Amino acid sequence: MPFEATLEVRDACLCLHVQRAARALARRFDEALRPVGLTHGQFSLMMALNQPRSPTLGAVARLLAMDRTTLTAALKPLERDGLVSIQAAPDDRRSRLLTLTGKGLEVLASAVPIWRDTHAAIEAGLPRAWPDALRAGLLALS
């Protein structure tokens, strides 16, 4: 295997560059959200649950592009900490409804201003047109 192939992948691989950027952003948001006791993943998950009606586990898994097993594992600490409630759906006992508790809503409300400030700082560090173009490109890939 020629070393040139390694350099090609290093320089051109979209997956590699998206993963690196995602890890850097994750570290930044994890640090920012630490005072409210959330990780970036927990914040995103809780935001996905912040809906007028309790979503099903399957709907949230699709929204976050997660498999159900991974989502169930991610919900366990939130449920343990009293931030999320998981109940059987009344019309289909096999389906699970996910709801933010009162405590979960309070924590999420305290996290949103932190997210806004951190997000604004990240966008301010990018050239003006990049954030919208980046969002559009990532949406197209997903």
From TrEMBL:
Gene3D superfamilies found in the cross-reference section: Winged helix-like DNA-binding domain superfamily/Winged helix DNA-binding domain
Superkingdom: Bacteria
Gene Ontology molecular function: DNA-binding transcription factor activity
InterPro entries the record matches: HTH_MarR-typ, MarR/SlyA-like, WH-like_DNA-bd_sf, WH_DNA-bd_sf
One Pfam entry name: MarR
Example of a GO biological process term: response to stress
Domain named HTH marR-type: residues: 11-142
Bilayer-crossing regions: none
Entry protein name: Regulatory protein, MarR family
Record organism: Stigmatella aurantiaca (strain DW4/3-1)
